[in-house]
UniProtKB/TrEMBL annotation:
InterPro entries: Diguanylate_Cyclase, GGDEF_dom, Nucleotide_cyclase, Rev_trsase/Diguanyl_cyclase. It is an enzyme of class 2 (transferase). GO terms for biological process: cell adhesion involved in single-species biofilm formation; negative regulation of bacterial-type flagellum-dependent cell motility. One of its GO terms (cellular component) is plasma membrane. PROSITE patterns: GGDEF. Residues 1-126 form the GGDEF domain. GO terms for molecular function: diguanylate cyclase activity. It catalyses: 2 GTP = 3',3'-c-di-GMP + 2 diphosphate. This is diguanylate cyclase.
Length: 126
């Protein structure tokens, strides 16, 4: 399960306006959906955060997919200055006994590590 958070999104809103920010978020969600399988789920997870559910996907594959998404998001043309939209992703793989809370908590720690390491990165904490 990857958690995705755009980088420096306040700056996107402040520079190009909230409506453009909304459009960027919608485009990121569309890019995710286009990249994922039919059974995968992209969900808004409060604010500008998105949760991605990849059923029956080993962590290694989830990490590969998250890395692909990171690249696609960074390379897409949003109609604003190139390079101004990137995202950080934290990925957690299901472990026996996990609840949704413990899974999200690990993905969130990965996300925090990705932000802390400089953003536009994929991190996983097991
Ligand atoms: N346009 C738009 N902005 C949103 C939405 N939800 C949250 N935001 C904005 O997203 C911004 C998030 O800012 P911060 O939490 O400071 O994080 P950030 O600027 O992305 O910085 P880092 O996460 O540290 O890279 C805030 O300005 C929120 O108002 C939304 O639905 N639409």
């Amino acid at each position: 399960m990857p958690l995705l958070l755009p980088d420096h999104f306040k700056r996107v809103n402040d520079t190009w306006g909230h409506l453009k920010g909304d459009q960027v978020l919608r485009e990121i969600a569309t890019l995710c959906r286009e990249t994922l399988r039919h059974e995968d789920v992209v969900a808004r997870f409060g604010g500008e955060e998105m949760a991605i559910l990849l059923p029956l996907t080993p962590l290694e594959d989830g990490l590969r997919l998250a890395e692909r998404l990171r690249q696609i998001i960074a390379e897409h043309d949003y109609g604003i200055q190139r390079g101004s939209v990137t995202a950080s992703l934290g990925v957690a793989g299901y472990i026996d006994g996990d609840t949704s809370d413990t899974l999200i908590e690990r993905a969130d720690r990965g996300l925090y590590a990705a932000k802390h390491d400089g953003r536009n990165r994929v991190f996983s904490i097991q």
